[in-house]
Task: structure prediction
Amino acid sequence: MGNYVNLKEKAYCFIKNKIINLEFAPGEYLEEKKLGDLLEISRTPVREALAKLENELWVTNMPRKGIFVTNIDENMVNAIFEVRIHFEPAILELAFSNLSAVKLQLFKSRFEEYENWNQAERDKIDNDFHLYIFNSVDNIFVKNMLNTTFDHLVRVRKFSFDKKSKERIEESNREHIETIDYILAGEKEKAVKAFRKHIENSYKYYLGILF
Result:
């Protein structure tokens, strides 16, 4: 039983990682047998992994057609940012007293030095900052919900990788620094407000460049 569960988890992680990194492209057909051959496992754990991925909206099961990677469309971006706008500022408020001044200073210095990083590194710094905030909350349900949402955001970011403007990168860095400064100053209300504005600006930006 344990080995079977491990095979299912192996298939789940493999397929999800390929989808996030666009190695399985939006809209691409996924065949159970080929996936099993790639992983050198039977089709049963692959099928169950795909069912879990469908529940998390990574794949879509189309009757009489098969399993396809979920498209990145306006509805998907709307859903991601609806969650982010409503929950991330609240999570910052919950995590506020748990955040480390030392770590925040390190993030601030990295945002200030954004010109030294390539775009992949900038995206990682951005991701790491947001993940640091919601992993600082002592609530496993909050962590699970936001981490899944954020994984979907990572795919959207990769999909828009070559469309990003220098202006938005600079603006986003300023927004991160402003939020960090408010946190370091103990200004919770201002930090939460700045964080919400940053996410709203990101939402408008991704809608603009993708659709």
